Amino acid sequence: MHLVQLLLPLRDNDGVPFPRADFEQVRVELTERYGGVTAYLRSPASGVWRGEGGEEARDEVVMVEVMVGKLQRRSWAEYRRVLEGRFRQAELVVRALRIDRL
C-alpha cells in the first residue's frame, strides 16, 4: 500500500490566491478515482528554499493525500503535469510513501 501526497500552493507566483474551487476540483477528482481523499486545507505549511540565483523563495502549501493499493507512477506523473498547469507551477511535489496498514 502507498500513501500519495500532493503539495499544492495556496497562491500563484504573483501572490494571488487560488480559488477554493481549484482545491475542490482536486478533491472531487481524487475521490472519484480512488474512493476517498484527505485534504489538509486549514493549516498550510510554509516552505522556504533558495532559487538558482541564491535568492530566498517562500510558499505556503496544503497537502492532499490518497491511499492506493498499487502505485501507478505514469498515471500520477500525468496528473502532476495537469496540476502544474492548473496551479501555474513549473513543478509540484507529488510523492509516494510505502505504508503498512495496521
How would you characterize the overall build of this protein?
β2 and β3 (56-68) form a beta hairpin. The chain is globular. The protein contains two helices and four strands; from the N terminus they run βαββαβ. The chain has a single domain (2-98), classed as Alpha-Beta Plaits (2-Layer Sandwich), CATH 3.30.70.120. The protein has helices at residues 20-34, 73-86; strands at 2-9, 38-50, 56-68, 93-98. It has a four-stranded antiparallel sheet, with helices on one face. With 102 residues, the protein is α+β, with helices and mostly antiparallel strands. The model has no long low-confidence stretch (mean pLDDT 91). The N and C termini lie close together (11 Å). Helices cover 28% and strands 39% of the residues.
Mean pLDDT: 91
**What is the structural class?**
alpha+beta
Instruction: Kindly estimate the percentage of residues that lie in beta strands according to DSSP.
Output: 35-45%
| Total E-strand runs | 4
Strand order in the largest sheet? 2-3-1-4
What's the number of domains?
1
CATH hierarchy, class = Alpha Beta
Shape descriptor reads: globular
Cα(first) to Cα(last) distance is 11 Å
Which architecture name does CATH use?
Answer: 2-Layer Sandwich
| Biggest sheet layout | 4 strands, antiparallel
**CATH fold-level assignment:** Alpha-Beta Plaits
List segments where confidence is low: pLDDT < 50 over at least 5 consecutive residues.
Answer: none
In terms of quaternary structure, what is this?
A: single chain
